[in-house]
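INFO  loader      accepted 1 record
INFO  loader      residues=414
INFO  predictor   begin
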Amino acid sequence: MSRRNWPAVAILSLTLWLVGAGFAHAAGAPERGPKLDAKAWIVIDARTGEPLAGHAVDRHLGMASTTKMMTGYLAVRKLPLREKVTAGKYDPDPAESLMGLEPGQVVSVRDLLYGLFMLSGNDAAVTLAKTVSGSEAKFVKLMNRTALRLGLDDTHYDNPVGLDGPSHYTSADDLAKLGRVVMGMPRLRKIAGSRVAKLTSYRPPLTIETTDSFLRDNVWARGIKTGHTLGTGYTLASDGRKKATELIGAVIGTPSETARNGETVRLLDWGFSLYDKRVPIKVDSPVRAVPVRYEDQDLPVFSKRRVRIGVRKGERLTVVTTLPDEVEGPILAGRKMGLATVRLNGQPFATVPLFAGRTVEKPGLIDKLLGNPLWIAGLLLLALFAIIASLLLVRRRRERKARKRLQRVLRTRR
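INFO  predictor   done
INFO  writer      dumping tokens
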């Protein structure tokens, strides 16, 4: 190759590399992140849904009992938690996870949901499915329609339980998206993150503990759902909170429960390392100070609730206040004065009320006079006029005295 041709070759090589990188990105190849012992994985920001890193994120894989996230989602949307239902007969295969329902047992939807997430009960899943739709088959159709509505384009369900099936699959990306939906529902979030719960429709009430070892072993963990079958391996949809940041992870197809938990911790810890905790609004520091009419001292305003937020490098954090330009007493300490909104990259994150940090007395007449520039100017003019008038009066009196002395002198000479 001649020296004259090497620039063209270099440009062509760079172009091909960029095109290849584009195809790789479109296919779900990771740009960064840890290397995990799993078939597929992803970590996303729970606040925005933004993916931070992933591997084979669109690959179709079995989901095992993470299927129950969709079962629980539909049950919460369709059924009152207090509703009592009667469990039917359920014939499990060997080694299935069960809640332990007896045929004919009356149990609340609430308790079934705790059994679904905490014990991964297949019998609870089937009972909820039949209660919602009348049959498993109809419920599975509802699951698939809902998956399309939620934008889970790489997910398909064959059953509400999580048993392996010919077209029962999801992707790491879809699993994390569904996890975000589940954790965005307050009632379901509480259930998915519970370590201990009491089943109150049982007689006597029964206390259960979660079988999710990831949730048990990590105090910062918030949920969500485990899964395991021989065909899928060990799977976990996870949620954790550190450094004022909430992340959601999905790890599919690890070789063991220990690997599943360890790789999930590595994944979320890597995600947390991208954030710094900021406290833009503190309880013991004024958010702003507002000028007080007729006073030299401003009025500090405080929030009764602090705001913490995780911020990544390059993100812009601002605090915007809605307050009067100036206030006038009387104002009692603790009176609501306005609002403060924390914004990240221009988007509102949290809004808190602001309260007066001290009492401002009603201004008196002297305060108003001294605090009004026009009145002060008027008083100065009056004082100036008074001084000038006094000087003129003194001058006149001196002139009169001088004239009288002159007249007396003239009379004497005559």
